[in-house]
């Protein structure tokens, strides 16, 4: 997982401590060259933070429910996952009163609840669906005291590196229903049904 950024960074970029962009291929070559990872799938998540008041939304003709592919397929099971903004407002990165970005929140929610039963690509589709139906707080004009909730597509998952046709499972052969507790403030799953876990009344 790479978390980096600067005031005017572009989505999917990786920056060093001085704000200089780091070539993604240089990092991947280190990962590919590590003998501990030989013959194993390699998954890298990239979250780039942009601290501008407004960010340029990603102009895509693809459906907001699609996972974008920006690069060529590889043969060594390397996946680099990031996200592109679909709205101009800053909340595509960090929402108000949120711990982490919408992208990270969606990944945590989906992996926590479905990692035992879905493939890696299915998990990404579920996370993409969460961001396609995100609940975004918006302050009203009445002294900025009241807050309304809007449902928006805040971001879209993009594969910067991927291996075509590879099906990855974190728990292959394990048939376990994931333990759920409490309620999750998330949205709809790929099936159109709520992905939140409802608490049983006592």
Automatic annotation (TrEMBL):
One Pfam family named in its UniProt record: Peptidase_C14
Stretches assigned to the Caspase family p10 domain: 100-172
Biological process per Gene Ontology, one example term: proteolysis
Bias kind Basic and acidic residues: ranges: 183-202
Region (Disordered): 182-202
Listed SUPFAM superfamilies: Caspase-like (SSF52129)
GO function term, MF aspect, one: cysteine-type endopeptidase activity
Gene3D superfamilies for the chain: 3.40.50.1460
The name this protein goes by in its record: Caspase family p10 domain-containing protein
Source organism of this protein record: Mytilus coruscus (Sea mussel)
